[in-house]
Each structure stands twice: as C-alpha cells, then as structure tokens.
C-alpha cells in the first residue's frame, strides 16, 4: 500500500479528536445538540490548526444517519460517502483555484435544489479570501439567507482579506495556535504507534518550531522519520530543518559569554562542515537570545520555556549571565543579520562578528564585525599586551641571531613607537598644495575625480610614505566613525546623508577622505554645493583639523588599487627578509621604513 | 415621527403598531429582519393570524404597485407585510427627480391594512426635502436610523440576545460591544456565546476572548493602553496573538501619538486648560484628552520623552534596514519588560 502522510493518517474524524480549539468544538457540539446551528460559519486561523478538519466533521455530523451523541459514526453511508468525497451534496471547493464569479455562480445554481443524498447540503469553501471581489458579491445574497437545508463553511488563513459584508453574515470562529504541550501530546500518541524510537525532546523541538500548527508538526515528524534510521532526536530534527541544534547554539553563547574565541571557531567549523547556512545560524542565535531574555525577564505566557524541554543546557547557559550582556549580544546579532545580506562572504562575516562579540563590551554604533575602543581598553588591551610581549621576545631573539651572524643592522626596540608618535615625527618633504590644488581643480571641472594615479610625482610619493601611518590611522578612525559621521550629517541635512550613504570610505590621504561611489550621480552630487560644504564641515569637526571629502568612482578606485599593488610588489621585492618579518609582526601601519638614514627601522 | 430602533421594537411589543416604518442607514439586514418578525408576531397577538413577509425593490416598481400586490394577502397568507427596499427618496443619496420622490408621498394618504416597512441604505435624511419633512412629521410613519443605537439600548439588545441564565459581567458586556459591530454582528456573537455556555450561568474572560474576535485595530489600541499603564508582558502576549498581518508601524505610530498626546496634555493642563479647551487646541476628541490626562498620571514628562525617542529610533532602525522588523519589535518589548521589572538592560 502506498505511504500515506502522517498528517492525513491522523486527520481528526471526530470532534473529540480535534487538538485544542475547545471553544469551537464546544460551541458546535452544543449547536448540534440543541439545534442552534448557524446558516454560515467562517473559520479563521493559522495553517494547520484544524479549520478544514472541523468543517468536514461538521458536514458529517449534520448528515450522519447514526449520530453517536453529537459525533458522526463514520460508518453510515453518508459518513463514508462524505469521507470518500462521493456525496454530491457536500461540496468542498478550493477557492484558491476556483476564484472567479463563474465558479461561484455555478455553485450557487445548485443551492436552490434540495439535497439529493443526505439531509443537508454543505458547502465548504477553503481559502475563501482568494475569491475575487465579484465572486464575493455573487455569494453575498445567498450567504445572507440561504435555504434551510444549506450550510456554508468558509475557511481562511487571512480573514482580513475577506470583505466585511461576507464576514458579518457568518458566525466567526477564530482557531488559535495549538498549545505546544497539546501538540507534543498528540505527537507522542503518534510516535507510540511507530516502530522508530522518538525522543521526547525531539517532539518538543518539533512542536516549538511549527508554532502551533498540528499539520506542520506531523509533516515534520514524517520528514524526520524518513531522514533518520531508527532513532529520532533533536539533532535529526535540526538537520531536517537546516538549522543548528539548540545545544550547539548554547555552546556558542557560552563561549561568547566566556570570551572563548577558540570554542566559537571550533563550533563554527563544525557547523560549516555540515553545510549550514550562515544566515540561518544567525537567525537561530537570535531566537536563542530572545528566549534567554524572556526567561531572564520571567515573562509568563510566552513560549521561551519550551526551549528548556528540548535543550536541558539552556537554563544553565543563561543562568549566570547579566541581562544587559544578553541584550548586547542579541542586538549585535540582529545587526549582523541585516548586514549579512550585503556580504558575499557570509561565513567569514559571521565568524568575525561572533569573534568580535567574545571581546566583551560592545558599541551599538559600530558595524557588527568590529570591536570598539572601549573593548580594547578592557580584555582586548590585555590580549594586545600579551601579544606585544611575545613579539618583543621574538624580535630580541632575531636581533641576537642577526648580531651573531655579524649583521651590521641594529634593531632598537625602544625606537619602535606607537602610531601616534610616528605621526608626530612625520616631516613633509613636499608641500601638500602640490597635490591638492590640481585635484581640486579637476573636481570642480568634472565634479568627479579621476584616478589619483595620475598625480603621483616623486616628491609627493616621499611625503606620502612618511605620513602614511597617520593617514592610515585617520582612515581607520573615519571607517570606525562612519555611522556616527552619517548621523551628524543627517542632523544637518537628510538629503546629504542620503547621497553620502551610497559611498564607502576607501582612503585617507593628507587631509582628504576618499569616498568611492558605484554611480557617477552620487559622486557628482556629494561634490556639489551645499552637500560638499556640509560634509567637509562635519569631517573637519570630527577630526579636529581641516578635512575634505573627495569622491571617486568605484571603478577608478579599483584601477588605482591595481596599479598601487603592482608598484608595491616591485618595491617589496627589494626589501630585506628581516624587514619583512618586522612588518609582518607589527603591521604595515606601525612600521615606517626610512632607507635614507642607513636602513634604520622606526 | 423619529424613534430609536429599540424604542420602536418595544412599542410593537406593547401593541402600538405603526402604519409605515421607514428604516434608513439600513446597511445591516438584521434590524429589518428583527423588526418585521416582531411586527408579524404582534399582528398575531391582535388577531391578524397567518401574516407573511414579502420583499420588494422600489428600484423596479412603484409603491402603488407594491401596496396593491401585497394588499389582501396571497395564496399562502392572509396578510402580507411588505418590505420595500431602495426607498432612497428621503435620503441625501437620492439624486433622482423630485416628481418621483413626491410620488412616494402617495403612501401616507393611502395607508394599507398591514404595516409597511420602507428601507434605505442612505446614511442621512435629506431634511430639505418635502417628502422627508412629511414622513418625519406624520403620526402614521415611524422614522428609524437603523444603525444608530444608544449605549444603553445596545446593552439591552445584547442582554436580550444572549438571554437564558447566562449573566455577563459589565467588563464582558463592554468587551462584546467594543469595535464597530453592527446589530447583526452583535447578534451572531451573542448567539455564539449563548450556544457555547448553554446552561451555564457564567463564562470566564478567557473563554469569551477565545470565542469573540476583536478587530486588530481594537487590539492595537488595547496594546497601547497596556503599554502606557506598564503591563508590557500582557501587551507582548496580545501582540503575539495578532495574526492580521503587519501591525508594527501601526503600533509604533499609535504609541508615539499617545505619548506625544500625554506629554502635551500634561504640559498644557498645568496651565489650567480644561479638557474641552485642550481638545480644541490639540485637534483631538475630548475623550482622547481625558484618557491622556488619566494616563499622564502614570508617566512623567521624562518618561514620555524617552519613549518617544525610543520609538523614533525603533522606526528608524527598521526602516533603514538596520534591524529586521520582528527582531526590532521583540527587542523593544524585551527592553521595556526588563526596565519595568527593574532589571535594567
């Protein structure tokens, strides 16, 4: 025999079989018992809550020849005929595919004739909200005063799309989501009849994710049974759903709270290994965090408690964490979720985002993948100090090795200064006007800058090398403060902010912030008055010195990068290996190479 | 003469039958049905047995034709109570010729032996018309606004519809009456409650809320009221139950409006303005001012300001794509809950 889906096998055939919806079942039972049936019913509620099933049971109950109380016998010719769909007087119509006036007209044509096989004609119109306006209008008159032998049952998931004129002619019943514990009870009943072993936790998980939809829950159980061998657990359900198990999510949260980046990476590695979607992972993380907040808040009547039934570690994970910290993490994850849409490297972005979360303090204004100055000042600074001492040891060892090898070059660690000191020591070889004037003139002429490669003269290159560290630092500053900058601009002019929003800062160079735009219209507009003045003013205010905006097209910027990279490669080839090592350890932005003073490194 | 619908029903029950009943603003069919059934029953008490209701449309025949046709009963009934729909001549919706309207006056001079029911969906009477003046002045005609009922009448009709031994609390009656329910809808809901309870004498609020739906607009207003009075958890629970599509921006707008109103009312009330003056100044209904004044006792100016800023940020976060709609709203509620619990977030 062909396999019949669980939800069809277990479709309720009696009022007593209906899970939840006691208010509907009781009212209909009383109506049947005491002869107070309405002429038209409107059943509304989310999918899989029993609307069509109750309509079918009602159709059988009003026509059953051997009623058992108010329950249909399911064995008389009427019940059997209705169940088999063979009784012409009981019409089940899918309004989603028969939505026109012609279909409704042909249906109403039949209303005038008395039932042929059973006592009452029953018209079940499923997904009634899909009918056209004309079809609704055609239905109106009949629905208001149908013949005594007629019963209309309209079912819909979107009652707000049903015209008020139709709804007001029907007795309306709202089918609520089935409570999780009731879904679990029914699933247990189903699972007991199956040869496979199904864990209770898996049933709770199924009930939770299906949000009170009985049909969805049975379908998911069916799917998981087909997927699993002989045992169904939470992991198998999570696999079928394409999500990550709650316990695994919990272990990521635990690692975040403990600042354990290694565990975060290990867990992510496992998750990626199974081919999970980064966006789904972030969604699962947010749902977990939301439940944690609800649990911490002690809000009654919400579904957060359900998680404890399929994840015993949940309470333990969130027990000792401050509510504030959970809020911070969830808010950052929520931002990560949005930002993820614009990232080509989803996994990488999630990894960086979660690692940033392990660092502790979070500033809501910075992008989700960045830590803040505040975070650096706390555990981050400790980590940096540790790294610095390790690097110092390595450099000293290198120095000893060099001196043993008779090397002439001396490396004095005391001369390795933090970036701000480097900035102070910078001396400009050429006056900045040498580059600013022609470019600015160029902008005024064309409104959009051409590639900066056209302006690189020898003297200028030297100047750019010496103040490169300061520029990089300023660039990083603007990168970090980009959202704040946009906010400040927004306060002065929303339009200016909107135009600038399309750009991204790509470089800072001698008092000029280069912003790349994909389209010329954006680049041209931000360079026009009054936008340019507003932006320059905010830039200068933020940095404390005069700073100007320069717009560039993304294509020009890419070309420029390409040519710079080629030059850099050629230059790097000429460096000594030990210089390379120093640059690698300290980062290019903290090391200035000055060949003119006898190969000293500062 | 003009009467309320329920007064007309009570008069019929006491045996005072009118000759012509004119029901305007009759968009809901139930009052017409109820009135005609009461008339037939009262006629039975007065010895006019075997009366039947017949329905006609004045769009395709004249009143003379209807009265002639209905007079003297028919094959199945001794008497016929005619219901004449589309009697729009007295309302502002009538744009036809004056002669046609005047022809309807014939009825007042040729009253039939059974009462006649004239109906119109027109919302307002056109007081300038001669025919309207004639009907409202006539002692033989009862002019009724079929959609307008006083609060007390509405309650009485509701209690009558529920009948039996079931006693509803005043809060439950208020819940049933909230929203823009027509008499027909109220009757359907009352029937449902009565069928559910059957021989019980009371039902719980929870049962009533499960049985009787409220429009999402009404729910949203309830949510706003709950938030303002600090029942954030309850508000969140109600919000979760809303299935009528997107309510986020509606909720934000309503909340912002309410907090702004509270802030304004608090500020201006200190200057000694009355509710009526405040209402005129703020262009809102005096009742809204009264509610805002009461709610203003539970929140400070700083709290109002803080909430308005929070709501503006919430909206900006959603509209700028910074946070997804559901997550942003969830987080906002969670924060409010944490704050109200004093846990600080």
Task: Describe the structure in your own words.
The complex is a heterodimer of chains A (602) and B (345). Chain A is α/β, with parallel strands linked by helices and 602 residues long. Helices cover 57% and strands 9% of the residues of chain A. In chain A, helix 9 (200-209) crosses helix 10 (214-227), helix 12 (246-258) packs antiparallel against helix 13 (261-273) and helix 17 packs antiparallel against helix 18. Chain A starts with 5 loop residues before the first helix and ends with a strand. The model of chain A is unreliable at 371-378, 406-466 and 598-602 (pLDDT under 50). In chain B, helix 11 crosses helix 13 (248-269). In chain B, 35% of the residues are buried. The chains are: A alpha/beta (602), B alpha/beta (345).
Query: Which of globular, elongated, flat, extended, rod-shaped describes the shape of chain A?
Result: elongated
Fraction of residues in H or I helices of chain B:
55-70%
Q: What structural class should be given to the helix and strand makeup of chain A?
A: alpha/beta
Radius of gyration of chain B: 26 Å
Number of strands of chain A: 12
Largest sheet of chain B: 6 strands, parallel
Oligomeric state:
heterodimer
SSE pattern of chain B, N- to C-terminal: EHEHEHEHHEHEHHHHHHHHHHH
Strand order of the largest sheet of chain B: 1-6-2-5-4-3
